[in-house]
Amino acid sequence: MAEAPELPPLPILPPEPASEALEGTPTLPELPQLNKPVICPGCDSRFEVPLNVQTTKCPVCGESIGL
Fold first, then answer.
1. Is 20 inside a domain boundary?
2. pLDDT grade for 44, boundaries at 50, 70 and 90
3. Is residue 63 part of a domain?
């Protein structure tokens, strides 16, 4: 069997930045909540609910509304 050639040493990775170094970096703003408009069939009040809501109650008259 032939001897394997000696490989060069692996490069040294730079150290991870400290958490204090990241404090000055700007952060991304949170995405706004997406809402859909609702008109109550009972009292005609208008309000908004999150997109993922299936049913809600009118904040004015309390009627249950399926979306």
1. no
2. very high
3. yes
Contacts 24+ apart (CB under 8 A), 34-41: 36/67, 38/65, 38/67, 40/65, 41/65
22 within a domain of the structure (yes/no): no
Domain that holds residue 57: 33-67
Q: Which of 67, 39, 37, 65 is nearest to 53 (CA)?
A: 67
* pTM of the complete model: 0.51
| Domain count for the chain | 1
Q: Is 49 inside a domain boundary?
A: yes
Query: What is the pLDDT at residue 51?
Result: 92
pLDDT score, position 17: 67
pLDDT at 21 over 60: no
**What is the C-alpha separation between 40 and 67, in angstroms, rounded?**
11
